Amino acid sequence: MDDTDDFEPEYQLKSNLEADKIEFKPKFIERYEQLTDFETFKKYSLSFLRRSIRVNTLKISIEEVKKRLEKDWHLEQIPWCKEGFWIDHKGKGDDYRRDVGNLPEHALGYIYIQEAASMIPPLFMKGNDANLENELILDMCASPGSKTTQIAQYMNNTGILIANDYKGDRISALGINLQRCGLSNHIITLMQGRYFKGFQFDKILVDAPCSGTGTIRKSLKTLRIWNAHAITRLATQQKVLLETAFQNLKIGGVIIYSTCSLEPEEDEGVVSWLLNKYENAAVEPVKLPIKQSKAVMSFEGITFNEQVKNCLRIWPQDNDTEGFFVARIVKRD
């Protein structure tokens, strides 16, 4: 922890009328009462999510974007990402705007609308390095491209970035966003991540498909479709993707495993499984100016590998963001 431990985020609750319509399943409540202060988690999960942007320094400087926007918009620096800002319109009443996506700066690829916690995985990939230049990097589950474009930004458009996804409609959105942001070092591939074989990547991002329980604030549908059986199925898929990534990683290379889930089976459980299977896998801690919660070391009778304590777990109430989980895994000799 650091001096952000005293951070007290502000939140704006949805209307009581809307909040009263939201139901948390009994099994969900029972599970999450074991993991966190459920009432605080519930309060934040039913509050509006602050809008945030990331400046695309491949096209424009941070200072130039601030000059263009600060006349009409409040910009608040996101502590853990120098290119990231929370954004809020200065207008009042009927003049107040929420449509950041209609800004010319968005259309021109100067900014990318990206949730603040979503900016963490590429920062974990960069680690203590100044950039990711001239590396061979795979983004295994890339669409719609928020983290892909951020990685390319840190690569300074050098090296080769493989941006993969498994559905054609997802590839369409990915291609549009990569083009809008001015990427020139990428190759888009369409395949299931588990079929990668015989590569030696420097770094790999596995932003795995998940139950999305960290994203309730922007998708209340998550609560309706949540069930424990789906979590078990997703964890199985996540293990396959993570192991495939590890097998395609060069010695000394780095995998970033991330989810927007808060389920221990999908997070610490998946990382622990890999650590127990491969002795040359290790989790490296990454220090960011962010308030984080302790990793879950055991859950429902299963004790996880001791190294999962180095993973980052954040709840919505920690920094007034989405919930997120990130691990930096190194392949040792």
Describe the protein:
The chain has two domains: 52-113, Alpha-Beta Plaits (2-Layer Sandwich), CATH 3.30.70.1170; 117-331, 3-Layer(aba) Sandwich (Rossmann fold). 30% of the residues lie in helices and 21% in strands. It has helices at 16-20, 26-32, 38-45, 62-69, 104-107, 120-126, 146-155, 168-180, 221-225, 228-247, 268-277, 316-319, and strands at 52-55, 73-77, 84-89, 111-113, 136-139, 160-165, 186-190, 201-207, 249-259, 281-284, 298-299, 302-303, 312-314, 324-331. The strands form three sheets. Strands 5, 6, 7, 8, 9, 10, 13 and 14 form an eight-stranded mixed β-sheet that branches. A four-stranded antiparallel β-sheet has the order 2-3-1-4. The chain has a two-stranded antiparallel ribbon with strand order 11-12. β11 and β12 form a beta hairpin. The protein is globular and about 55 Å long. 43% of the residues are buried. Mean pLDDT is 93; it is low at 1-17.
